[in-house]
Amino acid sequence: MFYIKTNKFNMKLQLSLLQDMVTRPKYAFTQIASQNLSSWPAFILIILTMQLFYALYFNQVDMPWLVDYTVNTSLGQATPAEKQQLSQRLTEETIRLSASIGSVLMLVFYGLITSVYLNVITKLDEQNTDGFKDWFGFYWWVQIPAVFQLLLSSIVVLVTDSSQTPLMDLQITSINQILGLTPEDKFYSFAASFDLFSLWSIVLLFYGLSVRTQLKTSTITNICIIPFIFMLAFSLVFG
């Protein structure tokens, strides 16, 4: 559940879960369920690593260049006058806030959507009594790979020599490193954001559902694949 139970909080156990998420994810989710562990540590860890990454990035990036890059990629084929108008409104502070705060809000929004989806779809298991709050807490454990992805991206920021690197290019494990799509391509946002750590989250979702429900393996697999298909469709329509 997404609340703190001080009598259940065990720092050593919480830290060991990070290792278990890599080596034995099913055991990790069994521990979370049996110990009724709070998801607050996972949530806080994700947010802190996210803010660390943005702090490092904005400390290094050439902000005037980033403003111009954001304007050009956002407006695409717009006229120079339209781009100039946006450039005047799009300040460096606006970009900082929209990235550091907007990304947190977007992550929470995805968590809400995913929780609603899991709350509905897991009703296929008549014995499962988890509600929306339970799945909202569960979501943050599934997102633990984001911590490792953000730390890796932070290392890339520290070792790169260029001060003119787009955010998306820092995800060196994304499938766009293979596809080489540009911001003008429909699937660019999906390809640039979906990486090995996203696959890891899908694996964690699978094992987590196998622990919390009595659903068949094939059903759980389909539950995990549907959001992936939705993201592809969203990129096709709005990309």
From TrEMBL:
Keyword Transmembrane helix: yes
GO (cellular component) term, any one: membrane
Main location: membrane
Transmembrane segments: 40-58, 97-118, 138-159, 187-207, 219-238
The Yip1 domain, residue ranges: 21-234
Subcellular location: Membrane
Protein keywords: Membrane, Transmembrane, Transmembrane helix
InterPro entries listed in its UniProt record: Yip1_dom
Record's protein name: Yip1 domain-containing protein
